[in-house]
Amino acid sequence: MKAINLSNHTAGARHGSEVARGGVSERWTIEAVEALLALPLPELVFRAQTVHREHFDPCEVQLSTLLSIKTGGCPEDCGYCPQSVHYSTGVKAERLLDVEEVLAAARRARDAGATRFCMGAAWREPRDRDIAKVAPMIAGIRELGLETCLTAGMLEAHQASELKAAGLHYYNHNLDTSPDFYGEIITTRTYQHRLDTLERVRDAGLKVCCGGIIGMGETVSQRAGLLAQLANLDPYPESVPINQLVRVQSTALADAPPLDAFEFVRMIAAARITMPKARVRLSAGRSELGDAAQALCFVAGANSIFYGDKLLTTGNPAFAEDQALLARLGMRIASVESVVPDRG
Ligand code: SAM
Ligand code: DTB
Ligand code: SF4
User: Fold this and answer.
1) What is the per-residue pLDDT for 335?
2) Which residue numbers in the chain have pLDDT < 70?
């Protein structure tokens, strides 16, 4: 994989169209993505749905369930995060869950229809002994026939390789926002740190899950900057979570202005157009979005959701609520067979 460096991305980006997966030549410019975000909504959604249909069944949605396996007490200062020790949010630091607790949750998720189980740990970076404890969780979740995903902070190359050897399918590590807004949200690690981890994840042969958050006070151009960064990764991520900021009391971003739901729909549509083959995931913030805006997101190319009544520490629509919504929309849940790679 080519080295990812911020300087490559800010200088000399060529006129944007799709980045060829596996061998890059064309790049998305911020201006080209901004132009997408500025389209009249019907035009933008039509274009996104057209791209979506070239690669996916537009009536199918993949379900990922999240579990916080290590909650709270994180030394990082991410301005949005209730798990950071820098903010008194009431989230208590807990120990790493036992394998059996994790597998019981994964079994419940599978029985409710999820095909991917994502474990989140509030670490700046795992220690080698943490990786050793997570490895049997990964193996157990795989045995249940689920795809596995982990988000646990920055990784060293050998740790990424150990996770791959343990059977991990995806590693989630978000860029969160554009390079020029990032410093206003997080000061304890840099954008380049994140790009370095993503490169190690890719080099270890893991699939990349990488997205960001909108509604943190960023400009539309900075949203375009995030999408350009993601789309210009070589190759772009297989999985792209788009989160709406969940404004948690006492975090630095507790009083961020509310986001217009149509801005979220635009972000989903532009993610679909710039990363045609990725799973675009409607992530945090679905409870606030409401049914109609979520439906519009599916039309705009979202084809995955976090499924289960909790994200990591905050709420999410209940299983039954999502099942009812998908039934009302006539949408189908992607089967394990269709999404889990080694199950045919
Ligand atoms: N500690 C690891 C890390 O930061 O990579 C993994 C867990 S962290 C909670 C995973 C992602 O959740 C963050 O990168 C961020 O995009 C998202 N997130 C956290 N708090 C959020 C919030 N209040 N609203 C929306 N997204 C949030
Ligand atoms: C992602 O992009 N969103 C998820 C997952 N990856 C790990 C996390 C959302 C967290 C929302 C705040 C919370 O529940 O603590
Ligand atoms: Fe820690 Fe991750 Fe939260 Fe940042 S987002 S404070 S790294 S748990």
Assistant:
1) 80
2) 1-25, 340-344
Active site residues per annotation: 74, 78, 81, 118, 149, 209, 281
What integer pLDDT is reported at residue 11 of this predicted model? 31
Structure letter (DSSP) for residue 155: -
Q: Which sign does the torsion angle of CA 204, 105, 117, 263 carry?
A: negative
Ligand 2 pocket test target in 117, 287, 311, 313 with most atoms within 8 Å of CB = 311
User: What's the pLDDT at 215?
Assistant: 98
Question: Is there a contact between 167 and 139 (Cβ–Cβ < 8 Å)?
Answer: yes
Block residue for tokens 């800010």 = 10
Q: Which ligand 3 atom is the nearest neighbour of the CA of 153? A: 7
The continuous run of DSSP H or E covering 228 comes out as: helix 220-231
Task: Count, in order, helices (H) and strands (E) of the chain.
Answer: 13, 10
Radius of gyration of the chain, Cα coordinates, nearest whole angstrom: 19
- Nearest alpha-carbon partner for 168 in 139, 197, 143, 209: 139
The answer to whether 36 touches 269, Cβ cutoff 8 Å, is: yes
Tokens at 286, concatenated: 């679905």
> What pLDDT sits at residue 336?
73
- Note the pLDDT of residue 4: 41
Q: Please report the pLDDT score of residue 39 as a whole number.
A: 98
